Automatic annotation (TrEMBL):
This is Killer cell lectin-like receptor 7. One of its GO terms (molecular function) is carbohydrate binding. The keyword Signal applies. The keyword Signal applies. Residues 1-20 form the signal peptide. Keywords: Lectin, Receptor, Signal.
Length: 175
């Protein structure tokens, strides 16, 4: 069971303790950029034709039974969800801390990235739009935003943050 720790509009997920977060290292970011360039050629299970039609989508790899793609086209959360569906995928639901780290290590060039989470009407919980509620009984979410709120993954430090769903962000899709 993971414990959620609140940081204003962001939550840091850890197994009974906060993750240790290292400052951004330029060498690490350059390595990530090189990794991304190498992954552009690998389409994973996405068809070559689909990859040709969606040139901003990069295959990050397989993790815990999911084939994860990073879409570098800035979109609102709803448009990101529709973009994933257009390719036969879903906007990513992140289930584990090591999955967040996998994504963080395989991506570059963003501050926040859209996930499938949306703020429920019931204060203190999120739900995954395609599969139901996420249990976060230890967290109380207070949003400074108005309108629809989405759950984004922040790059540094690696944590979930709530953001207005109409903001333009990169996104994560999976098969």
């Amino acid at each position: 069971m993971y414990k959620l720790l609140m940081f204003t509009t962001c939550v840091l997920i850890g197994a009974k303790a906060a993750l240790s977060v290292k400052p951004v290292d330029e060498e690490v970011e350059l390595h990530r950029a090189r990794m991304l360039r190498n992954r552009i050629e690998d389409s994973g299970p996405l068809s070559k034709q689909m990859k040709t039609n969606h040139t901003t989508v990069i295959f990050l790899g397989a993790f815990n039974g999911k084939y994860i793609y990073y879409d570098m086209t800035p979109r609102t959360q709803d448009a990101a969800r529709a973009g994933c569906q257009l390719m036969g995928m879903k906007l990513l639901r992140v289930d584990r801390v090591d999955e967040m780290e996998f994504i963080n290590n395989g991506t570059t060039g963003y501050d926040y990235i859209w996930t499938d989470g949306t703020l429920n009407e019931v204060q203190s919980s999120f739900r995954w739009a395609h599969s139901g509620r996420v249990n976060v009984p230890d967290a109380i979410v207070r949003s400074p935003f108005t309108g629809e709120i989405g759950l984004a993954l922040e790059k540094n430090p690696t944590r979930f943050c709530i953001r207005p769903a109409n903001q333009q962000r990169h996104s994560l899709c999976y098969i």
